[in-house]
Amino acid sequence: MIAVYPGSFDPVTFGHLDIIRRSSAVVDELIVGVLRNREKTPLFSAEERVNMIVDATRDIGNVKVTVFSGLSVDFARASGAQVIVRGLRAITDFEYELQMAQTNRIMEPSVDTMFLTTSLEYAYLSSTTVKEVAAYEGDISRFVPENVADALHRRVAEIKAGEK
Ligand code: ADP
Description:
Bound molecules: adenosine-5'-diphosphate
Distance between the termini: 51 Å
Shape: globular
Oligomer: single chain
């Protein structure tokens, strides 16, 4: 079974990595898809986001990471995947995720969505809050792996230097 795990991952957090680890254990191959967003302006380029995930998942044999744009179902189809993996943190994620899953299933009945509920210790984590803490030079070591924390601190410093 091949599964895709699509998302923005701007940047990847321990919450995403928990979903990657657990879903990769139940499928043959997991392809993490980094969305090249058009409307949102990401802090990191799609290639930077891919490299950070590659670095953080080196020890997992059946995980690949790639960039995609467009619809998740089209990405799943093009990857030969039968399953789209998504993480559910709280009830706030539920409504949107339910709508997406049902819409995707109408567009592509051969692809199903598999939800993993987040591990409790990561339930509060989002890329947005991590970026906020990093912007004020707070300690983000409990939220993201070291390579991501370093990249975030560097990016914040670059932005601040640019504002001077
Ligand atoms: P999006 O795809 O909505 O732009 P993200 O890249 O942040 O968002 O997230 C990709 C997927 O990972 C989504 O299914 C999201 O619910 C899930 N996710 C995000 N943060 C966590 C977390 N802390 N624990 C578990 N799942 C998460």
